[in-house]
Amino acid sequence: MPTEVIMPQMGESIFEGTITKWFKAVGDTVAIDEPLFEISTDKVDAEIPSPVAGVLAEIRFAEGATVDVNTVVAVIGESGAKAAAPQAKIAKPAAQKSALPQAAPKTQAIAAQPPAEKSAQPRIAEVPTGRIRSSPLARRIAKEHGVELSRIAGSGSEGRVTKEDVLRAASTPASARLPVQRPAPPQVAQAPPPDLATLPADPVPLTRMRAIIAERMVESVNVSPHVYTVYKVDMTRIARLREQRKAAFDERNGVKLTFMPFIAAAAVAALRRCPIVNASVENTDKGLAIRYHRSIDLGIAVALDWGLIVPVIRHAEQRSFADIARTIADLALRARSKKLSPDEVGGSTFTLTNAGAFGGEYGMPIINQPDSAILAVGGLRKEPAVLTDAEGNDTIAIRSMQYFCLGFDHRLIDGADAGKFMLEFKKTLEGWNQEIG
Q1: Cα–chain center distance at 357
Q2: Is 415 found in the same domain as 339?
Q3: What is the CATH number of the domain that holds 22?
Q4: Residues 31 and 58: beta-carbon distance below 8 Å
Q5: Phi, psi of 135 (to 5 degrees)
Q6: How many angstroms separate the CA atoms of 350 and 300, rounded?
C-alpha cells in the first residue's frame, strides 16, 4: 500500500516549512529512517527521515517550496512498485501552498517524523576518520560502563565493535587499555579561492534562514536600545588548569575541554547574582513590565556554513561543569548536522557568542530577542601585563588575556547593573575554584 509522507509540524508555533533539499529522487529506493528531505522553519533546519521503507514514487513539491504542515509532500510505494514519472509530480515553487490532487483513497498517510530529541550526552563513537562501526547495543553498553569505543579493537565484520568486545574491555582496568591504532585521516589540500568571474552576476535571493536572521536583527535593533561594555579578563589560571586537566577530562567525559564551559559557568554564576541581566521586557495591558526568569536558559550561538543558530542549555543553573561541557558539545554537533529539535533553539534568557573564534579582539553583538543581554567572547592571546603583589610591588609578566563585550538593553539594564555582572563574571574566571569533573 503506498504511503503518503506529510510535512511534519516542527513545534507548536510552526505551521509551515520550506523544503530546502530532496535527498532522494523519484524512483530511488529509501530505507526506513533514512534522510528523505530537508526543511527550514522559523526555528530550525532539520533533516526529515522516511517513515517507511520502499520506493519514492512521487515528489509533490520542489526544493524551495513552502508547504503547510500536514500537507502531503511525497508518496512512497512498496519495493518493486512502478514509480511515477520523475518530473510530472513535482509542484513548482510558485505554487508553493497548493497541494496537487490527492492520491488514490487506499494510500496510507504517515507524517514524516522530525528527528528524535537526543540526550545531552555526546556521541562517544566518533573518531577522526568517521563513525566507528558498532551496534546500538554495543554503544549503549560502552556508555553504561564508561568505555571509549575508540579504544576498542573490533572483532566483528570490517572491524565492527561487538557487545563482547565492549564487555571484554569493560573488565580490563582503564590503565591497561591500549589505544587502538587507526589510520590517520587523509590531509585535505586547502581549496583555492574562487574565481571572482564565476560568481553569480545577478542578485541571489536570501535563503530562508538568512532572511529570518535579517528580520530578527533589524527587529532587535529597532526594539532594544543597545549599550556595550568591554572588560579584559586574565584567563591565565583557566588556561593552565585546562592544559593540566584536558586529557583526563576528555577520557572521563567523552568531550574535549574547551574554554567555553568555563565561560558559560562563569556567566551562570554572574547571572545568579545579577538576575536583572537574565530578565526580559514584556508588553502588558498596563505597559512595559519586567519578566524575571526563574531559570537560566543559556543560548550558545553556533556558526554554520549556511547561517547562525542559537541552541539553548535549559536550566543551566542546575547543571554541573561537566554537564555544561557535554551539552555544549552535543548541541553544537547536532546544530551542524541539522539534528536539533525546535524546542532546543528557542526561549533563551541570555546568550553567549564567540566573536573571537577567528582571532578578533572582541565583537559588539546584537541582542538575541527576547533576551536583554548578550556576551561576546573575544580572542584569547598572550600579552604583557602588570601584576601587583600584596605589598604593592609591580612586575611585568606574560599572561593569557581575553576581552569580553556585554551588549545590553538599556531599557532594562543600567550601566551599573552591567558593571556588577561583568565584575562578578571576571572574578569567577580569574579566581576559578570550581570542580570541573
Answers
A1: 16
A2: yes
A3: 2.40.50.100
A4: no
A5: -85, 160
A6: 9
The predicted model scores a pTM of: 0.67
- Look at residues 269, 246, 258 and name the one whose alpha carbon lies nearest to residue 329: 258
Per-residue pLDDT reduced to its tens digit, 342-369: 788 888 999 999 988 888 898 999 999 9
CATH no. for residue 339?
3.30.559.10
Who wins on pLDDT, 149 or 32?
Answer: 32
Comparing 366 with 81, the larger pLDDT belongs to: 366
Backbone angles phi, psi at 331, to 5 degrees: -65, -40
User: pLDDT tens digit string along 193-207?
Assistant: 878 888 888 998 888
Structural contact between residues 310 and 292, judged by C-beta atoms closer than 8 angstroms: no
Q: What is the pLDDT, as a whole number, of residue 182?
A: 47
Instruction: Report the C-alpha gap between 103 and 57 in whole angstroms.
Output: 11
Please tell me the predicted confidence (pLDDT) of residue 174. Answer: 58
Residue 374 corresponds to which cell in the numbers above? 548578550
Q: What is the pLDDT of residues 255-277, one digit of tens each?
A: 999 999 999 999 999 999 999 99
Burial (CB < 10 A; 0-12, 13-18, 19+), residue 171, is exposed
Q: Position 252: which residue type?
A: R
Question: Cell for 15?
Answer: 505551521
Q: Quick one: 104 and 131 in the same domain?
A: no
Helix (H) or strand (E) holding 16: strand 16-22
From the list 37, 46, 33, the residue with the least C-alpha distance to 344 is 46
pLDDT tens digits for range 368-413: 999 999 999 999 999 999 999 999 999 999 999 999 999 999 999 9
Q: Would you please indicate which residues are annotated as catalytic (active-site) residues?
A: 410, 414
**Of the candidates 279, 242, 249, which has an alpha carbon nearest to the alpha carbon of residue 402?**
242
Q: Which three cell numbers stand for residue 133?
A: 562501526
Containing structural domain, residue 63: 3-111
Residue 296: name the closest of 324, 331, 322 by CA.
324
**220 contacts 369 by C-beta, under 8 angstroms:** yes
Q: Based on the number of CB atoms within 10 Å of its own CB, is 25 exposed (0-12), middle (13-18) or buried (19 or more)?
A: exposed
34 and 106 belong to one structural domain: yes
Same domain as 398, residue 281: yes
What value does the mean pLDDT of the chain take? 82
The Cα 218–Cα 366 span in angstroms is: 9
